[in-house]
Amino acid sequence: MEWWKEGILYQIYPKSFKDSTGNGVGDLPGIISQVDYLDYLGIDMVWLSPIFASPDFDNGYDISNYRKIKPEFGDMADFHTLMEELHRRDIRLILDMVVNHTSSQHKWFQKSRENSRGPFADFYHWETDKPNNWESFFGGPTWSFDEAREEYYLHLFHEEQPDLNWENPRVRQEVYEIMKFWLDKGVDGFRLDVINLLSKAEGYPEGEKKSSGYTDGSPYFVNGPKLTDYLKEMNQEVFKNYDMVKIGEVIGGEPQYYKSLIADTEKALDLLIHFDHVSLDQRKDKWTGKEFSLVSFKQVIEKWLRTLAPEGWNAFYLENHDQPRSVERFAKGGKYRERSAKMLATMLLTLPVTPFIYQGQEIGMTNLNFTDISEVVDVESRNFYNSFIENGGDPQEALELISTRGRDNGRSPMQWNSSRGAGFTSGTPWLKLNDNYQEVNVDQEKEKENSVLQYYRDLISFRKNNPALIRGYFMQSAADDEDIFAYWRKGKDRTFLVVLNFSNTIQVFLDDHYSKNLEFIMSNVMVKEDHASDKIPPLAPYEARIYSQH
To answer: Is the bond preceding residue 169 a cis peptide, omega within 30 degrees?
Structure first.
């Protein structure tokens, strides 16, 4: 079985993980200082969000030089040291590769805007007249006028992130050379940012009008007409020559389409990061919420598992640098924070997936509480705030939404200890610390018996020692239950039943396949001595249990 199916992945947001200099910004030496912690947790793969040179309009996802480490993170020597230290502990290193767009400060764009007939003229999407009124992912138009070239250029995200023109074979070759540059250094794979947006429909057709006044162009750039060709070429030119993992972030689309990308013999992708399960609490956009439905959540998980199997394999996450913290999103947090964190960990680590853990998730970190827009850094959140106020919205309501749904929630500095700066920095952090860092931090979690961190460690070890939890057959039970998520994991030698209470009330679980041959294995609430052998007792709020059937 491929190593990326067996392993546990941990995502690091370098800017917020550990600062070694006191300037308030995380860096590579800071990560190096915590490699033993990753080994202690039981991690097999580390995904680093972008570490390349960037002006930081979108926190590193606007790259100005793909072959240079961003100076505030360190240098190439630091990178090699980090990679060597990880590899010495059998931890693989995966880099975030952003190739749908670059920074407007990249030399390609600078040369492209200077000369409409030069060799870099068609490296980006240029039009004399604005061809449509598409809305960008960050709000506002996707086309901006460039004074130097006197034409419009396309940017699906920030105006400082112009989209590369993948129709141009020179662009593709340049990207492939960048990928080989890092793979030849010894990295073990890439997380490919918004990889399914590479291909744009010819002529940039207008989309349907949205309430914002802009139009929806997604049918013309999500899974575009040449995407499969580009991915197969990428595999042929680069990926097939390396022992690596290819993780594609994909926006929109159905799992059946993506199965064709990861099941093909010429595939360029191994794992997919999709948004279906983290979009269920949204209406028309991420800022317009609706109540979380566990039934819908279970349906989405089952749909992806069933559709991609057996040829494909799923990645699964609850948090990342673009998402708020899970204990308050999928549970109630508050007095149930620790229990909720453990319950969600049980689900994450017992599904037939490659589990993705985001920094701080393993100690149950929570969302921030913004009281003024000056505390907000994320460009998407700031754009939302400005638009909300311009349309007559209440500033306090906007801040409450950002505190619940904004991307800065997942980017707040890692909480290592209770000292000033949370052990993240000796200086002033680039983004505000969470108010609860003195109670929620790694040092206290290490010392406390039955902590969230200890629960993660135990469960990671348990998963690795029980192949049924990795490769076993998945069969859901009580699929229509609005409070309980329960499923069987059937392996060759052992079968497990996982029961999760997603509610803040006591729940009774009855299973059609129930047998008295169940052995209680673990719970985030009760101990083995409290468990009656002849029945499944009611579940406490946010309780998780694992049984074994012989």
So the answer is: no
Provide CB contacts within 8 A for 450, sequence distance 6+.
Answer: none
How large a percentage of the chain has pLDDT more than 70?
A: 97
Q: Tell me, yes or no, whether 227 lies in a domain.
A: no
Tokens 């595999």 found at: 235
Q: Which of 304-308, 339-343, 468-472, 509-513 has the lowest mean pLDDT?
A: 509-513
Q: CATH number for the domain including 101?
A: 3.20.20.80
For residues 497 and 514, give the distance between their C-alpha atoms in angstroms, rounded to a whole number.
9
Same domain, 439 and 486: no
- Domain hosting 490: range is 466-549
Residue 433 lies in a domain: yes
Q: Active-site residues: which are they?
A: 193, 249
Q: Examine the domain organization and report whether 169 and 98 are in the same domain.
A: yes
Residue 514 has pLDDT above 80, yes or no: no
Q: Assess whether 432 and 481 both reside in one domain.
A: no
Residue 476 tokens, joined: 């859901």
Contact 244, 215 (CB under 8 A): no
21 and 74 housed in the same domain: yes
User: Do 491 and 530 share a domain, yes or no?
Assistant: yes
Q: Which residues, in sequence order, are CB contacts of 161 under 8 Å at separation 6+?
A: 57, 58, 61, 62, 101, 102, 103, 104, 155
Domain contains 133: no
Quote the pLDDT of residue 332.
80
Residue 440: closest CA among 414, 411, 409, 460: 414
109: number of Cβ within 10 Å: 23
Angle value at C-alpha 44, between 40 and 47, nearest 5 degrees: 105
E strands in 411-529: 473-477, 484-490, 495-501, 518-523
CA 349/CA 344 separation, integer angstroms: 9
Looking at the structure, tell me whether residues 99 and 31 fall in a common domain.
yes
Span 324-352, mean pLDDT?
95
State how many domains the chain has: 2
Domain's final residue, options 409, 443, 477: 443
Q: Output the furthest CA–CA distance in the chain (Å, rounded).
A: 79
- Residues 6 or more apart whose Cβ sits within 8 Å of residue 359: 10, 11, 12, 13, 16, 17, 414
Task: Give dist(CA 13, CA 416) in Å, integer.
Answer: 15
Q: What is the rounded CA–CA span in Å between residue 291 and residue 305?
A: 24
Task: Determine if residue 59 is left, alpha or beta; phi over 0 gives left, psi from -120 to 50 gives alpha, anything else beta.
Answer: left
pLDDT of residue 14: 98
Residue 474: CATH number of its domain: 2.60.40.1180
What's the chain's average pLDDT? 94
Q: Are residues 50 and 97 in the same domain?
A: yes
* Any domain includes 128: no
Q: Are 311 and 377 members of one domain?
A: yes
Strand ordering across the sheet containing 495-501 = 473-477, 484-490, 495-501, 544-549, 518-523
152 or 334, higher pLDDT: 152
In the chain, helix, strand, coil percent, each to 5?
35, 20, 50
